[in-house]
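can u pls check wat happens w/ zinc ion
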Amino acid sequence: MRIKIDGLKNGSNIFLVPENDITGTVIHDYVIKDSQDLELEIQKSGNYIHIMGEAQLGFKSICDRCAEDYETSQIIKIDYMFHIGKLDELSDEMVTVDPSENEGYLDLLPYFTEAFILALPVRQLCSENCKGICQNCGKNRNEGDCGCNFEKQSDPRWETLVKILNKNGET
Ligand SMILES: [Zn+2]
Ligand SMILES: [Zn+2]
């Protein structure tokens, strides 16, 4: 996922990351299964480069509740500022790049990876209604009732409340 940055013209440039370069990419535990070409708009102004674009990616994930694989998708947004060569003042929003070190290319993958991770939901669920794994017998409860009886188990905090209520009832 490399972008040639030493030949960019000032103003707006369009760069396509082909679908083939994206599909199959593995980011931590996620495998990208489906993508379209990622169209990037690259604004160059002197030594400043602003790279923007977004793509919808289909990928394989693992459910936090039932631990099964499932397919999902999300939109990632690329929005990064770069500066060619060192800056006198360090900036958090700016990454300095030296194209001469890399034959004139910028590797987008670390930024693509970060954008992907940032777009992930806090909880990965195969479905909103995923019943998860039974804490008692370990069966995936989406595949059917495991037969464990949860009705008898009540929250100890409620039991205390019930006791207090009963006591009040006696007096
Ligand atoms: Zn699940
Ligand atoms: Zn069970």
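The chain has two domains: 2-119, 146-170.
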